[in-house]
Amino acid sequence: MSLSISPPLRRIGRLLCLSSALAAPAAWADSYSDFQQASGQLEALMAKATPHSGLPRLGDPGVAQLFAQIADGPRLFQAPVAALQDVNESVAVCEKAMRLGKTYYAFGLAWPLPLSGAELQQARKEQVTQNLANYGDEMSSLFAFSMHCHGHLIGLMEQEFSAQPADAVSGPERLRARAFSKNTAIVYTSVVQFVQVPFWSVAQKKVMLEAAAQHATANANLMAPPLRERLLASLADADKDIDPALAPALATIRAALTVTTCTGLCQYY
Questions:
Q1: Regarding predicted confidence, which is higher, 168 or 135?
Q2: Eight-state DSSP code of residue 86
Q3: Is the four-CA dihedral 88, 92, 93, 95 of positive or negative sign?
Q4: Distance separating alpha carbons of residues 37 and 14, to the nearest angstrom
Q5: Is residue 2's pLDDT more than 50?
Q6: Calculated CA dihedral for residues 228, 247, 97, 12, nearest 10 degrees
Q7: What does each C-alpha distance from 126 to 29, 121, 130, 132, 194 come to in angstroms?
Q8: Would the pLDDT of 18 be above 70?
Q9: What b-and-e string marks burial along 117-149, b requiring 16 or more CB atoms within 10 Å of the CB?
Q10: Pairing of strands 3-5, 10-12
Q11: Are 212 and 191 in contact (CB under 8 A)?
């Protein structure tokens, strides 16, 4: 899950209401530095992980506090922080959080094993399944954060591109908008479709889907109509045996996907 932002091209793994933030600046003043410091500390802990110790868990001393500072998207992106009004700086935040999530997902996959062929593939598959069982809470928190992070980026990009008529946008900028729209849609679709994946618990799905629902309209408006239709069709059977706790968020997402018009960034897809 990645997207390109230029100039220069930046990669981001596969989510502004300033008025309320400005009303209480002291409460938000350190949210960006909190994120940077906490994510750096979590990365340092991850670097020390061994097969025996495993990766940092929310139940470990101090780790829950790090996640509270890293994964609180609403607090971070409502903050009147100058760095977060810059697309590339915001992309860097999304990239860092995605790296953390992918580290949990891929833990142990690089370890050498005395296997090859189908046996090695099966062992890797079992490792991923084990990671989802061990670190599902951590991953779901970070993937929910990605919904808020991409929602913030959509706002910045829409603001930038709405400042000029569509026919005045240069070729390179059109490609940039297209890359952003395409890859953001991939990220959003992947998280929404987790509702149908058996490895996640109901609580984990709820965290991710509710974050996705908060940004459903922004993401649906980003997609070209055929993409909305495909994602909506892919959710056709999602109601079968769904936990009632997930139904409201899923209904919000579906309602947003029924939009058939294309205005704004979706025209560059």
A1: 135
A2: S
A3: positive
A4: 23
A5: no
A6: -10
A7: 43, 9, 6, 10, 18
A8: no
A9: eeeeeeebeebeeebbebbbbbbbbbbbbbbbb
A10: antiparallel
A11: yes
